Amino acid sequence: MKLPLLLVLLLLAGAAGAQETVGTPVDTTAAVVDTIPPAPVSDVTARDHISNNDGGDRIEVHWALSPDDGGEETGDVTGYLVMRSTEPDAPADTAGVAGAGETMYLDRDAVPGQTYYYHVAATDGVNLSEFVTSPSVRGVRSFFQPSRAAVLVLTLLFFGLVITFTNLAQRGTDLFVRRIPGLNAIEEAVGRATEMGRPVLYVPGIGEIDNIMTIASLSILSHVARITARYETPLIVPTARAVVMSAAEEVVKEAYAQEGQIDRYNPDNIRYLSDAQFAFAGAVNGIMLREKPSANLYLGAFWAESLLLAETGFEAGAIQVAGTAMVSQLPFFVTACDYTLLGEELYAASAYLSKEPKLLGSLKGSDYMKVISIALMLSGLILRIAGYEAFSNWFRTG
To answer: Among residues 108, 110, 116, which one has the least CA distance to residue 137?
Structure first.
Protein backbone atom coordinates (compact mmCIF):
# COMPACT_ATOMS: atom_id res chain seq x y z
CA MET A 1 0.00 0.00 0.00
CA LYS A 2 1.43 3.37 -0.91
CA LEU A 3 1.72 5.93 1.93
CA PRO A 4 2.03 9.71 1.58
CA LEU A 5 5.58 10.82 2.35
CA LEU A 6 4.47 13.37 4.97
CA LEU A 7 2.39 10.70 6.78
CA VAL A 8 5.33 8.27 6.84
CA LEU A 9 7.65 10.87 8.35
CA LEU A 10 5.08 11.70 10.97
CA LEU A 11 4.71 7.99 11.87
CA LEU A 12 8.48 7.50 12.17
CA ALA A 13 8.79 10.59 14.37
CA GLY A 14 5.62 10.00 16.35
CA ALA A 15 6.76 7.58 19.07
CA ALA A 16 9.86 9.49 20.17
CA GLY A 17 8.06 12.80 20.01
CA ALA A 18 5.12 11.54 22.08
CA GLN A 19 7.40 10.19 24.82
CA GLU A 20 9.07 13.55 25.16
CA THR A 21 5.88 15.66 25.30
CA VAL A 22 3.37 13.61 27.31
CA GLY A 23 3.67 14.18 31.07
CA THR A 24 6.98 16.07 30.78
CA PRO A 25 7.24 19.86 31.25
CA VAL A 26 8.64 21.55 28.15
CA ASP A 27 11.82 23.46 28.75
CA THR A 28 11.67 25.98 25.94
CA THR A 29 14.98 27.46 26.86
CA ALA A 30 16.79 24.12 26.49
CA ALA A 31 15.06 22.90 23.29
CA VAL A 32 17.51 22.02 20.54
CA VAL A 33 16.29 21.30 17.02
CA ASP A 34 18.12 18.42 15.25
CA THR A 35 18.87 19.57 11.73
CA ILE A 36 21.58 17.04 10.89
CA PRO A 37 20.31 14.05 8.87
CA PRO A 38 21.78 10.58 9.42
CA ALA A 39 24.35 9.17 7.03
CA PRO A 40 22.82 7.54 3.93
CA VAL A 41 22.63 3.81 3.29
CA SER A 42 24.79 2.08 0.70
CA ASP A 43 24.73 -0.92 -1.66
CA VAL A 44 21.01 -0.69 -2.45
CA THR A 45 19.90 -3.61 -4.62
CA ALA A 46 16.52 -4.98 -5.67
CA ARG A 47 15.58 -8.38 -7.05
CA ASP A 48 12.53 -10.43 -7.96
CA HIS A 49 11.23 -12.39 -4.95
CA ILE A 50 10.89 -16.07 -5.85
CA SER A 51 8.52 -18.22 -3.80
CA ASN A 52 5.85 -20.88 -4.13
CA ASN A 53 2.86 -19.65 -6.16
CA ASP A 54 5.05 -16.82 -7.43
CA GLY A 55 2.88 -14.28 -9.25
CA GLY A 56 5.70 -11.83 -9.97
CA ASP A 57 4.18 -9.20 -7.65
CA ARG A 58 6.86 -9.21 -4.96
CA ILE A 59 10.27 -7.52 -5.05
CA GLU A 60 12.99 -7.62 -2.40
CA VAL A 61 14.94 -4.44 -1.67
CA HIS A 62 18.25 -4.80 0.19
CA TRP A 63 20.70 -2.21 1.52
CA ALA A 64 23.66 -1.82 3.85
CA LEU A 65 22.88 -0.07 7.13
CA SER A 66 23.54 3.61 7.62
CA PRO A 67 26.76 4.17 9.64
CA ASP A 68 24.59 6.02 12.18
CA ASP A 69 22.30 2.99 12.69
CA GLY A 70 22.96 1.41 16.06
CA GLY A 71 19.90 -0.83 15.96
CA GLU A 72 16.76 -0.39 18.02
CA GLU A 73 18.52 0.61 21.24
CA THR A 74 21.12 3.15 20.20
CA GLY A 75 22.05 5.24 17.21
CA ASP A 76 20.62 8.19 15.37
CA VAL A 77 18.54 6.20 12.85
CA THR A 78 14.90 5.39 13.70
CA GLY A 79 14.02 3.71 10.40
CA TYR A 80 14.28 3.61 6.64
CA LEU A 81 11.98 5.05 4.03
CA VAL A 82 11.62 2.98 0.82
CA MET A 83 10.19 4.65 -2.28
CA ARG A 84 9.84 3.45 -5.84
CA SER A 85 9.49 4.93 -9.28
CA THR A 86 9.19 3.65 -12.81
CA GLU A 87 12.04 5.89 -14.06
CA PRO A 88 15.31 6.80 -12.29
CA ASP A 89 14.47 10.51 -12.12
CA ALA A 90 10.67 10.29 -12.13
CA PRO A 91 8.59 11.25 -9.07
CA ALA A 92 8.59 8.36 -6.59
CA ASP A 93 5.80 6.91 -4.49
CA THR A 94 6.21 5.55 -1.01
CA ALA A 95 6.53 1.76 -1.02
CA GLY A 96 6.89 1.30 2.75
CA VAL A 97 9.11 1.72 5.79
CA ALA A 98 11.56 -0.51 7.62
CA GLY A 99 12.74 -0.30 11.21
CA ALA A 100 16.19 0.53 12.53
CA GLY A 101 18.63 -2.36 12.09
CA GLU A 102 16.68 -3.87 9.16
CA THR A 103 18.37 -4.35 5.81
CA MET A 104 15.52 -5.66 3.66
CA TYR A 105 12.05 -4.62 2.63
CA LEU A 106 9.62 -6.82 0.69
CA ASP A 107 7.39 -4.91 -1.68
CA ARG A 108 4.19 -6.97 -2.00
CA ASP A 109 2.37 -4.55 -4.30
CA ALA A 110 4.44 -4.56 -7.47
CA VAL A 111 2.91 -4.91 -10.92
CA PRO A 112 4.31 -8.02 -12.69
CA GLY A 113 6.54 -7.05 -15.61
CA GLN A 114 6.75 -3.36 -14.61
CA THR A 115 10.23 -1.87 -14.33
CA TYR A 116 10.93 -0.22 -10.97
CA TYR A 117 13.71 1.78 -9.34
CA TYR A 118 13.81 1.72 -5.53
CA HIS A 119 15.11 4.63 -3.44
CA VAL A 120 16.11 4.14 0.19
CA ALA A 121 16.86 6.84 2.78
CA ALA A 122 17.62 6.69 6.50
CA THR A 123 15.70 8.92 8.91
CA ASP A 124 16.13 9.99 12.50
CA GLY A 125 12.45 10.84 12.81
CA VAL A 126 12.97 14.44 11.75
CA ASN A 127 15.46 14.50 8.93
CA LEU A 128 15.95 12.31 5.90
CA SER A 129 19.30 11.28 4.53
CA GLU A 130 20.13 11.38 0.86
CA PHE A 131 18.24 8.74 -1.15
CA VAL A 132 20.26 5.94 -2.72
CA THR A 133 18.74 4.34 -5.84
CA SER A 134 18.84 0.68 -6.83
CA PRO A 135 19.34 -0.67 -10.34
CA SER A 136 16.17 -1.41 -12.30
CA VAL A 137 14.19 -4.53 -11.42
CA ARG A 138 11.04 -6.29 -12.67
CA GLY A 139 8.78 -8.83 -11.01
CA VAL A 140 8.48 -11.98 -13.11
CA ARG A 141 6.03 -14.83 -12.71
CA SER A 142 8.13 -17.95 -12.06
CA PHE A 143 6.95 -21.35 -13.23
CA PHE A 144 9.93 -23.06 -11.61
CA GLN A 145 11.62 -22.17 -8.33
CA PRO A 146 15.38 -22.62 -8.85
CA SER A 147 16.06 -23.14 -5.15
CA ARG A 148 14.01 -26.36 -5.34
CA ALA A 149 16.04 -27.84 -8.21
CA ALA A 150 17.57 -30.46 -5.89
CA VAL A 151 14.10 -31.69 -4.90
CA LEU A 152 13.13 -32.06 -8.57
CA VAL A 153 16.32 -33.96 -9.42
CA LEU A 154 15.97 -36.37 -6.48
CA THR A 155 12.26 -36.92 -7.20
CA LEU A 156 12.96 -37.76 -10.85
CA LEU A 157 15.78 -40.05 -9.73
CA PHE A 158 13.48 -41.89 -7.31
CA PHE A 159 10.71 -42.44 -9.83
CA GLY A 160 13.30 -43.46 -12.42
CA LEU A 161 14.56 -46.17 -10.07
CA VAL A 162 11.04 -47.40 -9.32
CA ILE A 163 10.07 -47.57 -13.00
CA THR A 164 13.35 -49.29 -13.93
CA PHE A 165 13.01 -52.01 -11.28
CA THR A 166 9.31 -52.47 -12.07
CA ASN A 167 10.14 -53.05 -15.74
CA LEU A 168 12.88 -55.51 -14.78
CA ALA A 169 10.44 -57.44 -12.57
CA GLN A 170 7.83 -57.52 -15.33
CA ARG A 171 10.43 -58.98 -17.72
CA GLY A 172 11.12 -61.82 -15.28
CA THR A 173 14.39 -60.59 -13.80
CA ASP A 174 14.99 -62.16 -10.40
CA LEU A 175 15.19 -59.21 -8.01
CA PHE A 176 16.73 -60.30 -4.74
CA VAL A 177 14.68 -59.45 -1.65
CA ARG A 178 15.90 -60.68 1.71
CA ARG A 179 13.42 -62.88 3.57
CA ILE A 180 12.19 -61.12 6.68
CA PRO A 181 12.50 -63.14 9.90
CA GLY A 182 8.95 -62.14 10.79
CA LEU A 183 7.64 -64.41 8.02
CA ASN A 184 9.31 -67.35 9.78
CA ALA A 185 7.58 -66.28 12.99
CA ILE A 186 4.19 -66.35 11.19
CA GLU A 187 4.80 -69.87 9.90
CA GLU A 188 5.90 -71.01 13.37
CA ALA A 189 2.73 -69.56 14.89
CA VAL A 190 0.50 -71.33 12.34
CA GLY A 191 2.43 -74.56 12.92
CA ARG A 192 1.86 -74.33 16.67
CA ALA A 193 -1.88 -73.75 16.15
CA THR A 194 -1.96 -76.87 13.95
CA GLU A 195 -0.23 -78.94 16.60
CA MET A 196 -2.70 -77.78 19.26
CA GLY A 197 -5.72 -78.26 17.01
CA ARG A 198 -6.86 -74.67 17.47
CA PRO A 199 -7.66 -71.96 14.90
CA VAL A 200 -5.54 -69.09 13.63
CA LEU A 201 -6.87 -65.54 14.06
CA TYR A 202 -5.84 -63.05 11.36
CA VAL A 203 -6.83 -59.38 11.89
CA PRO A 204 -6.16 -57.17 8.81
CA GLY A 205 -6.58 -53.93 10.78
CA ILE A 206 -9.45 -51.48 10.69
CA GLY A 207 -8.32 -49.44 7.67
CA GLU A 208 -10.32 -49.07 4.47
CA ILE A 209 -9.48 -51.05 1.36
CA ASP A 210 -7.67 -48.03 -0.13
CA ASN A 211 -5.24 -47.95 2.78
CA ILE A 212 -1.86 -49.21 1.57
CA MET A 213 -1.36 -51.12 4.85
CA THR A 214 -4.64 -52.99 4.27
CA ILE A 215 -3.56 -53.91 0.75
CA ALA A 216 -0.21 -55.18 2.05
CA SER A 217 -2.03 -57.14 4.76
CA LEU A 218 -4.26 -58.88 2.20
CA SER A 219 -1.15 -60.03 0.32
CA ILE A 220 0.20 -61.57 3.52
CA LEU A 221 -3.24 -63.05 4.26
CA SER A 222 -3.02 -65.00 1.00
CA HIS A 223 0.25 -66.56 2.20
CA VAL A 224 -1.21 -67.39 5.63
CA ALA A 225 -4.37 -68.87 4.08
CA ARG A 226 -2.30 -71.19 1.88
CA ILE A 227 -0.42 -72.47 4.94
CA THR A 228 -3.63 -73.03 6.95
CA ALA A 229 -5.21 -74.77 3.94
CA ARG A 230 -2.17 -77.01 3.62
CA TYR A 231 -2.21 -77.85 7.35
CA GLU A 232 -6.03 -78.06 7.48
CA THR A 233 -6.12 -75.47 10.26
CA PRO A 234 -9.18 -73.21 10.67
CA LEU A 235 -8.52 -69.57 9.77
CA ILE A 236 -10.69 -66.81 11.29
CA VAL A 237 -10.54 -63.35 9.67
CA PRO A 238 -12.57 -60.63 11.46
CA THR A 239 -12.92 -57.36 9.52
CA ALA A 240 -14.12 -53.86 10.29
CA ARG A 241 -14.99 -52.82 6.72
CA ALA A 242 -17.48 -54.45 4.39
CA VAL A 243 -15.29 -54.02 1.31
CA VAL A 244 -12.29 -55.45 3.15
CA MET A 245 -14.41 -58.47 4.12
CA SER A 246 -15.33 -59.08 0.47
CA ALA A 247 -11.69 -58.80 -0.58
CA ALA A 248 -10.59 -61.12 2.26
CA GLU A 249 -13.19 -63.70 1.18
CA GLU A 250 -11.78 -63.76 -2.33
CA VAL A 251 -8.17 -63.89 -1.12
CA VAL A 252 -8.77 -66.80 1.28
CA LYS A 253 -10.98 -68.70 -1.15
CA GLU A 254 -8.39 -68.42 -3.93
CA ALA A 255 -5.62 -69.54 -1.57
CA TYR A 256 -7.61 -72.64 -0.57
CA ALA A 257 -8.30 -73.37 -4.25
CA GLN A 258 -4.59 -73.12 -5.10
CA GLU A 259 -3.82 -75.65 -2.37
CA GLY A 260 -6.58 -78.00 -3.62
CA GLN A 261 -8.53 -77.55 -0.37
CA ILE A 262 -11.51 -75.57 -1.64
CA ASP A 263 -13.88 -77.95 0.18
CA ARG A 264 -12.36 -76.85 3.50
CA TYR A 265 -12.96 -73.18 2.81
CA ASN A 266 -15.48 -71.88 5.37
CA PRO A 267 -17.01 -68.49 4.41
CA ASP A 268 -18.44 -68.13 7.94
CA ASN A 269 -14.90 -67.62 9.24
CA ILE A 270 -14.52 -64.40 7.21
CA ARG A 271 -16.57 -62.11 9.42
CA TYR A 272 -17.73 -58.51 9.36
CA LEU A 273 -17.96 -57.33 12.98
CA SER A 274 -18.34 -53.55 13.18
CA ASP A 275 -16.84 -50.42 11.69
CA ALA A 276 -16.88 -48.79 15.15
CA GLN A 277 -13.34 -48.95 16.50
CA PHE A 278 -13.91 -50.19 20.03
CA ALA A 279 -16.95 -52.30 19.18
CA PHE A 280 -14.69 -54.11 16.71
CA ALA A 281 -11.98 -54.50 19.37
CA GLY A 282 -14.49 -55.88 21.87
CA ALA A 283 -15.85 -58.38 19.34
CA VAL A 284 -12.35 -59.60 18.42
CA ASN A 285 -11.50 -59.99 22.10
CA GLY A 286 -14.63 -62.10 22.46
CA ILE A 287 -13.43 -64.38 19.66
CA MET A 288 -10.10 -64.78 21.46
CA LEU A 289 -11.77 -65.79 24.72
CA ARG A 290 -14.52 -68.01 23.27
CA GLU A 291 -12.82 -69.75 20.32
CA LYS A 292 -9.31 -69.65 21.85
CA PRO A 293 -7.12 -69.33 18.74
CA SER A 294 -3.55 -70.45 19.33
CA ALA A 295 -2.00 -67.90 16.96
CA ASN A 296 -3.04 -64.24 16.63
CA LEU A 297 -1.76 -62.28 13.63
CA TYR A 298 -2.30 -58.49 13.58
CA LEU A 299 -1.13 -57.11 10.25
CA GLY A 300 -2.43 -53.84 8.79
CA ALA A 301 -3.54 -50.39 9.97
CA PHE A 302 -4.25 -50.14 13.69
CA TRP A 303 -5.00 -47.27 16.00
CA ALA A 304 -5.90 -47.20 19.72
CA GLU A 305 -7.40 -50.69 19.63
CA SER A 306 -3.95 -52.23 19.10
CA LEU A 307 -3.12 -52.54 22.81
CA LEU A 308 -6.60 -53.92 23.66
CA LEU A 309 -6.18 -56.69 21.09
CA ALA A 310 -2.56 -57.52 21.85
CA GLU A 311 -3.03 -57.50 25.64
CA THR A 312 -6.08 -59.78 25.46
CA GLY A 313 -4.24 -62.20 23.19
CA PHE A 314 -1.26 -62.18 25.55
CA GLU A 315 -3.48 -63.00 28.54
CA ALA A 316 -5.08 -65.81 26.50
CA GLY A 317 -1.66 -67.38 25.96
CA ALA A 318 -1.59 -67.19 22.15
CA ILE A 319 1.50 -66.72 20.00
CA GLN A 320 1.20 -63.24 18.53
CA VAL A 321 2.81 -61.66 15.47
CA ALA A 322 2.02 -58.04 14.57
CA GLY A 323 3.01 -55.63 11.82
CA THR A 324 1.99 -52.06 11.06
CA ALA A 325 3.38 -48.82 9.69
CA MET A 326 1.53 -46.81 12.35
CA VAL A 327 4.52 -45.59 14.33
CA SER A 328 2.42 -44.61 17.36
CA GLN A 329 1.12 -48.19 17.77
CA LEU A 330 4.41 -50.04 17.34
CA PRO A 331 5.43 -49.76 21.03
CA PHE A 332 2.25 -51.58 22.11
CA PHE A 333 2.78 -54.40 19.62
CA VAL A 334 6.47 -54.69 20.49
CA THR A 335 5.55 -54.96 24.18
CA ALA A 336 2.70 -57.47 23.94
CA CYS A 337 3.54 -59.59 20.87
CA ASP A 338 6.18 -62.25 20.25
CA TYR A 339 7.34 -60.68 16.99
CA THR A 340 6.58 -57.38 15.25
CA LEU A 341 7.11 -56.30 11.65
CA LEU A 342 8.32 -52.71 12.04
CA GLY A 343 7.10 -50.05 9.63
CA GLU A 344 8.29 -50.78 6.11
CA GLU A 345 8.85 -54.45 6.92
CA LEU A 346 5.09 -54.86 6.43
CA TYR A 347 5.40 -53.67 2.82
CA ALA A 348 8.59 -55.64 2.27
CA ALA A 349 6.88 -58.82 3.47
CA SER A 350 3.98 -58.15 1.12
CA ALA A 351 6.31 -57.67 -1.87
CA TYR A 352 8.38 -60.72 -0.96
CA LEU A 353 5.34 -62.99 -0.74
CA SER A 354 3.29 -61.67 -3.67
CA LYS A 355 6.19 -61.14 -6.14
CA GLU A 356 4.02 -58.42 -7.68
CA PRO A 357 6.26 -56.40 -10.08
CA LYS A 358 4.94 -53.01 -8.94
CA LEU A 359 5.51 -53.85 -5.27
CA LEU A 360 8.98 -55.21 -5.99
CA GLY A 361 9.83 -52.14 -8.09
CA SER A 362 8.70 -49.77 -5.33
CA LEU A 363 10.61 -51.73 -2.70
CA LYS A 364 13.87 -51.88 -4.66
CA GLY A 365 13.56 -48.26 -5.80
CA SER A 366 13.03 -46.95 -2.27
CA ASP A 367 15.91 -49.06 -0.95
CA TYR A 368 18.35 -47.72 -3.57
CA MET A 369 17.11 -44.18 -2.93
CA LYS A 370 17.90 -44.57 0.76
CA VAL A 371 21.45 -45.63 -0.09
CA ILE A 372 21.86 -42.66 -2.45
CA SER A 373 20.49 -40.25 0.19
CA ILE A 374 22.92 -41.52 2.82
CA ALA A 375 25.82 -41.22 0.36
CA LEU A 376 24.80 -37.63 -0.50
CA MET A 377 24.59 -36.66 3.17
CA LEU A 378 28.00 -38.13 3.96
CA SER A 379 29.52 -36.46 0.89
CA GLY A 380 28.05 -33.10 1.86
CA LEU A 381 29.34 -33.46 5.41
CA ILE A 382 32.86 -34.34 4.29
CA LEU A 383 32.99 -31.54 1.69
CA ARG A 384 31.66 -29.00 4.17
CA ILE A 385 34.28 -29.98 6.72
CA ALA A 386 36.89 -29.56 3.97
CA GLY A 387 35.58 -26.05 3.25
CA TYR A 388 33.55 -26.71 0.07
CA GLU A 389 30.03 -25.51 0.80
CA ALA A 390 28.63 -25.28 -2.74
CA PHE A 391 27.59 -28.95 -2.78
CA SER A 392 25.58 -28.83 0.47
CA ASN A 393 24.18 -25.38 -0.35
CA TRP A 394 22.69 -26.81 -3.57
CA PHE A 395 20.31 -28.86 -1.44
CA ARG A 396 19.01 -25.85 0.48
CA THR A 397 15.37 -25.16 -0.33
CA GLY A 398 14.94 -21.81 1.37
So the answer is: 116
